[in-house]
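Example record

One chain of 68 residues, shown exactly as stored in the release files.
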Amino acid sequence: MKPYKDLAHIHSLNGEVKEVTVLAIDTESERSAVYTVEYNGVKCKARFNPFVCMLYADDKYEVIKNDN
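Predicted structure tokens for this chain:
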């Protein structure tokens, strides 16, 4: 998948909408797809809310650490 830009509510900004880069989509979840996004240099998990048609990026509790 080629990374692309999208808008998302950012957890650390109390839901303020900012641009993120979507890096990957994991569709294995039974309930909803889990996205890997990058915001402000931080990779984290995001989920799509179909009721408002927006991503919610959790850059507080679902940060993806580098393995390096």
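Notes: The longest strand covers residues 16-26.
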